[in-house]
Design goal:
The complex is a heterodimer of chains A (110) and B (114). With 110 residues, chain A is mostly beta strands. In chain A, 0% of the residues lie in helices and 55% in strands. In chain A, a hairpin with a 5-residue loop joins strand 9 and strand 10. Chain A is globular and about 40 Å long. Chain A starts with a strand and ends with a strand. The chains are: A mainly beta (110), B mainly beta (114). Chains A and B meet through strand 4, strand 5, strand 9 and strand 10 of A and strand 4, strand 5, strand 9 and strand 10 of B.
């Protein structure tokens, strides 16, 4: 069945450093979504990528979707303490089944 | 005010008991999902439904059951067959019309077996 893998599992950075998390699917995806979960909270939708090779930016966050539509990345430039949380990618295939990666937990030292 | 509501927020269950977690949405979404999250872990799909009176098993459906009698409601029953039910349960819903299929999550239910 469809699997979505995400690395690294966690990353601890100094405030101001950059951060990247990577997502890989075992199958071709219709789209990829990214979510952020704050400690003790629930996942909140950040963005969706649909097209092969698509790149989208939200302020300091840059999202990419691979050419083969099987991988994606999230890059945060100059992290801030407000970026703390777990970032999940979620892949959706031709059905509406939404499979989440294992998440990358980001810790930021002030 | 539109949204997705899960209840209760905290639930305690004795071993051998079935419990039902509620999930209601007023977003007019067709698709609904149940996920399980263990401490420090990702979200694992239990069941999902794309339409009323139809649902599919996810990756960890054993020991769980669902129903989808109404578009707004997708309750999850954790049965006594689920050997390790203590976890954080998240319900989500989304539209089916692409490309706007982002999922909206409820606040979650923390289930503890005592």
């Amino acid at each position: 069945g469809q699997q979505v893998m995400q690395i690294p599992q966690y990353q601890h950075v100094q405030e101001g450093e950059d951060f990247t998390t990577y997502c890989n699917s075992s199958t071709t995806l219709s789209n990829i979504q990214w979510y952020k979960q704050r400690p003790g909270g629930h996942p909140v939708f950040l963005i969706q990528l649909v097209k092969s090779g698509e790149v989208k930016k939200q302020k300091r966050l840059t999202f990419q979707f691979g050419e083969a539509k099987k991988n994606s990345s999230l890059h945060i430039t100059a992290t801030q303490t407000t970026d703390v949380g777990t970032y999940f990618c979620a892949g959706q295939d031709s059905s509406y089944k939404l499979i989440f990666g294992s998440g990358t937990r980001l810790l930021v030292r002030p | 005010d539109g949204g997705i509501t899960q209840s209760p927020k905290y639930l305690f269950r004795k071993e051998g008991q079935n419990v039902t977690l509620s999930c209601e949405q007023n977003l007019n979404h067709d698709a609904m999902y149940w996920y399980r999250q263990d401490p420090g872990q990702g979200l694992r799909l239990i069941y999902y439904s794309q339409i009323v009176n139809d649902f599919q098993k996810g990756d960890i459906a054993e020991g769980y059951s669902v129903s989808r009698e109404k578009k707004e409601s997708f309750p999850l029953t954790v049965t006594s067959a689920q050997k390790n039910p203590t976890a954080f349960y998240l319900c989500a819903s989304s539209m089916k019309s692409r490309p706007n299929t982002e999922a909206f999550f409820g606040q979650g239910t923390r289930l503890t077996v005592v």
